[in-house]
Write a structure and sequence with these properties.
Largest sheet: 5 strands, mixed
Strand content: 15-25%
Shape: globular
Organism: Mycolicibacterium agri (Mycobacterium agri)
Number of strands: 22
Structural class: alpha+beta
Protein name: DUF1214 domain-containing protein
Number of helices: 15
Number of domains: 3
Oligomer: single chain
């Protein structure tokens, strides 16, 4: 009996893939043999063929299909808000009074806090319920829109100390916050390319290879943590409860990295990002290795065989005085990374970036010489794999990440070899990139029109396995004293140093904490001439948790400076001590901290630390005499402001309402 012909398109697709892989292997074998012969040495000076341009535009204008769901959600929200307004009508007068009392001032804290001279021990307050805080904040912002629909809302400026009923008070405020309709503009991060990458990554992490590899990572990370945190008895119960989530986020990050292996189809893709919901899709977190809550990370695949142009724009650019632009990120860098490990080979910083009067800029990326028409240049080498663009936002409610896109303007055609990440493989990738003949040879096999999910999952699994070594390396940043090579004691933070595992233009003071419920870690930071610092809490697995509903980090714009005009005193604890500069551990007794300093100057930063009982914070000499304390209501407003700043990253959806 004759066998029926195969009609399953999946079978045909996999057969085509197997055939192409076989052809690629044969071509590589022949090419290596030819290249190793003496007669081919002169071929290395050959030229690669031009390819079609590949552009990843960063214009985040949604299509008509994208806009309809947004309008529907907004209409539903406004209907519900109308009912809420009737119940909170009395709050309008209070809101109007507060808004009229405010005046614009940048780079100072927004929440009106109180400096209290205590004669009796301060009662301890529990942290407010995040969900209730979020609802209250949402209602407050809606009421402010009704109260002043045509005006920008500004925060109050720091006021001189005043005396009221014999009590000294200090008005402390956040930065100039504009919460008008313009503040609800579409985020430059939500490009079509970004949303497509997120859908692909979500599909990839659900494949069998990734699910199996996650089990391997959980076991490996646990064994590593037992060894590296041996001085505190290994990871505690709370950190073990976060192991699965941490591995899930690492897998999501690897699924993004898998899409960044092909330098022939580059696009700017955000990863190392928290979970978020926008444009009708929910995206899992992809945070890894001491992610910074203030930083937007975007990556672009590159290779020596091609030439690229990166384009971007800073909003409201002032060519006469760029630093006066409140929307300008605290720091922006472009780092050229090599290999799969991501070592930094070159950095182009915001200070060195030549920007046009309208805020636009272009960066020419190539192994060849820079053309005269380009002011900014990144030179590729044979082992170049990625360019990492970092926008660090100190004031979440004002500063805005740049728009970003990349275009490949010349190079070999896309191929199966590039699709499989051959150019990123150590030794093999550089060898092919250095030899135009091999580059042309591997380019003969065209790419698959649709990469099978199982294949993407297999490649992602290989990337994930690198995490076994990388996780150990990054945990040791906190647990090993870099000056002696010996174990570091918990709760000890010293002057920052440079570390190859981080941004090369950055200094870090890393360590880990082990605190009882009634203990606090007091960290004193003197940033020196640094324009930016942040104190973020991460778990034993070196990633953040919910830093939008919890104050698990503070940076130079969010913290209150001491009266000496130089230092900042930060209190890290599980329980809320009522201090304005409180960094919550997010419910952890044990975890890691990597204090970062960027935009460095001539005078270097310093860090010191000590552990005290929370009940001792009121004792003389424990905290600076001018330490600012807050009431529970003021803390709730502080968290609400934090959440509204976080929401701006993922506009147009109102994340506060969506996640309750």
């Amino acid at each position: 009996m004759a066998k029926a012909p195969c009609t399953d398109p999946t079978d045909t697709r996999y057969a085509r893939f197997i055939g192409r892989v076989g052809g690629l292997a044969v071509a590589l074998g022949i090419g290596v043999a030819i290249v190793n012969s003496p007669g081919i040495a002169s071929a290395n000076d050959g030229q690669s063929a031009d390819s079609d341009k590949t552009t990843a535009e960063s214009s985040a204008q949604p299509s008509g299909r994208d806009r309809d769901p947004v309008k529907t959600v907004v209409r539903q929200l406004r209907s519900q808000i109308t009912d809420i307004r009737e119940k909170v009508q009395d709050a309008k007068d209070d809101v109007n009074d507060r808004l009229r009392a405010r005046s614009p001032q940048r780079a100072a804290p927004h929440v009106q806090a109180t400096q209290i001279v205590r004669t009796t021990p301060k009662p301890r307050k529990t942290a407010p319920n995040p969900a209730l805080v979020a609802v209250a904040g949402f209602v407050r912002r809606e009421l402010e829109q009704v109260a002043t629909p045509a005006r920008a809302r500004k925060s109050v400026a720091p006021a001189a100390a005043i005396t009221q009923s014999g009590i000294t008070q200090s008005a402390v405020t956040q930065s100039a916050v504009t919460q008008s309709a313009a503040a609800q503009a579409i985020s430059p991060l939500g490009t079509p390319a970004q949303r497509d990458a997120e859908r692909t990554a979500t599909e990839t992490v659900n494949t069998l290879p990734v699910q199996v590899t996650k089990l391997v990572l959980k076991t490996g990370w646990y064994v590593t943590a037992l060894s590296e945190y041996s001085k505190v008895g290994g990871p505690d119960r709370a950190n073990l409860a976060q192991l699965s989530r941490s591995v899930d986020e690492y897998a999501m990050g690897a699924a993004f990295q898998q899409q960044l292996l092909n330098p022939m189809t580059p696009r700017a893709v955000m990863q190392v990002a928290p979970p978020h919901t926008w444009y009708g899709q929910s995206v899992g977190g992809s945070r890894i290795l001491y992610d910074n809550p203030d930083t937007i990370y975007r990556f672009m695949a590159v290779n020596k065989t091609s030439t690229y142009v990166i384009r971007g724009k800073f909003e409201d650019w002032n060519p006469e005085d760029p630093e006066s632009n409140p929307k300008l990120p605290a720091d922006t860098t472009f780092s050229l990374l090599t290999g799969l490990s991501g070592n930094t080979a070159q950095v182009l910083s915001q200070k060195d970036l030549v920007v046009k009067p309208n805020g636009e800029f272009e960066i020419y990326v190539s192994a060849g010489p820079k053309p005269d028409e380009y002011d900014n240049y990144i030179q590729l080498t044979s082992d170049s794999t990625l360019i990492a663009a970092r926008d660090t936002l100190a004031d979440w409610n004002v500063e805005q990440p740049m728009t970003l896109s990349i275009e490949r303007i010349s190079g070999p055609p896309n191929s199966l070899a590039a699709q499989l990440g051959l150019f990123a493989i150590p030794f093999i990738g550089p060898a092919v990139s250095e030899r135009p003949f091999l580059t042309q040879l591997v380019s003969l096999i065209p790419p698959l029109p649709n990469e099978p999910p199982l294949l993407r999952g297999a490649v992602t699994s290989v990337i994930m396995l690198i995490g076994l070594q990388m996780e150990r390396e990054y945990i040791r940043v906190a647990t090993v004293d870099s000056s002696t090579g010996g174990p570091r004691q918990p709760n000890v933070f010293t002057d920052p140093t440079s570390n190859a595992a981080f941004l090369s233009t950055q200094l870090q003071s890393a360590g880990y904490f082990d605190l009882a419920d009634d203990e606090a870690l007091i960290v004193t930071v003197d940033p020196g001439d640094s324009g930016y610092f942040v104190v973020p809490v991460t778990n034993d697995w070196t990633i953040t948790d919910n830093y939008w509903d919890q104050q698990t980090s503070l940076n130079i714009a969010q913290a209150v400076q001491n009266s000496d005009g130089k230092t900042y005193t930060i209190v890290i604890s599980k329980a809320d001590p009522g201090v304005y500069n409180w960094v919550s551990t997010g419910g952890l007794n044990q975890g890691t901290v990597s204090i970062r300093f960027q935009d460095l100057g001539d005078v270097g930063p310093t860090v010191s630390s000590k552990v005290v009982k929370i009940s001792e914070l009121d004792d003389p000499g424990v905290l600076p005499p001018d330490t600012v304390f807050v009431t529970p209501a003021q803390r709730a407003e502080q968290i609400d402001l934090r959440r509204s700043g976080f929401d701006r990253r993922f506009a147009p959806f109102m994340q506060t309402f969506m996640q309750i």
